[in-house]
Design goal:
- The complex is a heterodimer of chains A (371) and B (80).
- By secondary structure, chain A is mainly beta.
- Chain A contains five helices and 26 strands.
- In chain A, 40% of the residues are buried.
- About 2% of the residues of chain A have low confidence.
- With 80 residues, chain B is an all-alpha fold.
- The longest helix of chain B is centred in the N-terminal third of the chain and has 19 residues.
- Classes of the chains: A mainly beta (371), B mainly alpha (80).
- At the A-B interface, strand 1, strand 5 and helix 2 of A face strand 1 of B.
Chain lengths: 371, 80
């Protein structure tokens, strides 16, 4: 990595940004989301916070412009291809500002120029990083096809930004100074929790999650806090109740109910509010069987079930291996897809046929990803 | 029909020159664009090839030409 001459950086930790105009290539909400997500990758490894302003001056002014004269700076744009965007080092006036070439086709996919990916690079400049010579770094100046399954910051980018903004000041003291980013195709991939959500499958790992639609090859990778800011990182279990458009998240002896992107007031609540005895300290994994209207909660080598129709919880837990032959130990995560259950145990995944009551396939944990 | 290599070479040089002007602060010296091993353009191409981890030849070879035709951040690679 490298920084600008004189190493300019922001003297404050809370920075404001304003989107001056929108590209017609995307809906304004999509532009807002891409920009917010681009800032969030930098805030995830620094003490910086970014606040959107809708009027007045802001530290980082963001605009879309065509050609050279229309956006009044020293670096003209050049039509489709070539230069796609540029941004200025921290400072007054034009300092920190990011300009995007409207002649590009801005997308939220892997086609054209992915706005999130380009914005993340440009905001690296806005924060004080100059171009990197490492071809794997986000700050390498050549655009390469966006891969949504990979966290865009390379260790070189993290080292660079943390040389400017002290990572020791990150709010959560349990976070490591140099975060280890999960590799979706690595042999050691494990999950904290897995659930369906509105037709997609969501895989949780520490403070990130992957989202995958079964019919689409690509997989998206995001920060949990970007969607659900009040949820803790490293959830133990999660399951969806599709007919209520709800997800229940579990961590320790607490749970949260989420409706879409919002957590209604009153959460977290203690586990016993669901009907568990008070000695149940943690749920390892859970799923909801839509056909039976039953939720299943796994803890150590046992499970509890809750019948939604009768609103009754099992009085006693049962052994997992008795109801799910072939699943013999503690479960990390489980979800239901079509008529199968997918159990995760460490680096293994078991496909379990609910009708035949047996394990039908042994899969790798990265089975759902395009590895 | 074989490509007109002379014309292709000229186009490649123009691409490289434009690229160096945009991102490496290169200014063409005088009217003619003369190719010499110690010319300013050779030095700038070497600088560019070194930055991108390409083989440093000082010539607009295929890897340098490939690179200048890719989309990129429009911020010049000269920090000052």
């Amino acid at each position: 990595f490298s920084t600008f001459a004189g190493e300019p950086k922001w003297a404050k930790q809370v920075l404001t940004y304003r989107i001056l105009n929108y590209t017609p290539d995307l809906r304004p909400a999509e532009v807002n989301a891409a920009i917010r997500k681009a800032f969030s990758i930098w805030s995830s490894v620094t003490p910086l916070k970014f606040i959107k302003k809708d009027r007045g001056d802001a530290d980082i002014m963001i605009s879309f412009a065509t050609g050279g004269k229309s956006h009044n700076d020293f670096i003209p744009f050049d039509g489709p291809g070539g230069s796609v965007a540029h941004a200025y080092a921290p400072g007054k006036d034009i300092g920190g500002d990011a300009h995007f070439d409207e002649d590009e086709t801005w997308t939220k996919s892997t086609e054209g120029a992915n706005l999130f990916y380009v914005a993340a690079h440009e905001f690296g400049h806005s924060l004080g990083l100059f171009h990197s010579r490492d071809p794997n770094a986000l700050m390498y100046p050549v655009y390469r096809k966006f891969d949504p399954s990979v966290f865009p910051l390379h260790q070189d980018d993290i080292n660079g930004i943390q040389s400017l903004y002290d990572s020791a000041e990150i709010k959560d003291p349990t976070e490591s100074k140099e975060p280890v980013l999960p590799n979706s195709c690595g042999p050691d991939l494990t999950f904290d929790a897995v659930t369906t959500f509105r037709g997609e499958i969501i895989f949780f790992k520490d403070k990130h999650f992957w989202r995958k639609h079964p019919a689409v090859r690509e997989v998206d990778f995001d920060l949990v806090s970007l969607f659900w800011p009040r949820l803790p990182s490293g959830v133990d279990a999660a399951y969806e109740i599709p007919e209520e458009d709800k997800i229940l998240f579990f961590k320790g002896n607490e749970f949260w109910v989420v409706k879409g992107e919002t957590i209604p007031p009153g959460y977290p609540q203690k586990l016993y509010a669901l009907g568990f005895s008070k000695d149940v300290a943690k749920i390892d994994a859970a799923f909801y069987d839509r056909n039976k209207g039953k939720a299943y909660y796994f803890t150590a080598d046992k499970f509890w079930s809750y019948d939604k129709r009768n609103q009754s919880m099992d009085r006693k837990p049962r052994l997992i291996k008795d109801a799910f032959p072939g699943i013999n130990a503690k479960v990390d995560a489980v979800f239901q897809h079509e008529n199968f259950l997918y159990f995760f145990q460490g680096r293994k995944q078991f496909e379990f046929d609910s009708d035949k009551k047996k394990v039908t396939r042994l899969l790798k944990t990265n089975f759902w990803f395009p590895c | 029909f074989p490509a007109h290599t002379g014309q292709k070479k000229e186009e490649g040089m123009q691409l490289i020159q434009k690229y160096l002007e945009n991102y490496y602060g290169f200014k063409k010296d005088g009217e003619s664009f003369i190719w010499k091993s110690n010319s300013a353009v050779t030095k700038k191409i070497k600088e560019m090839q070194e930055f991108f981890g390409l083989e440093v030849t000082g010539r607009p070879d295929s890897s340098a030409l490939d690179l200048v035709q890719k989309s990129r951040c429009g911020f010049p690679d000269v920090a000052g």
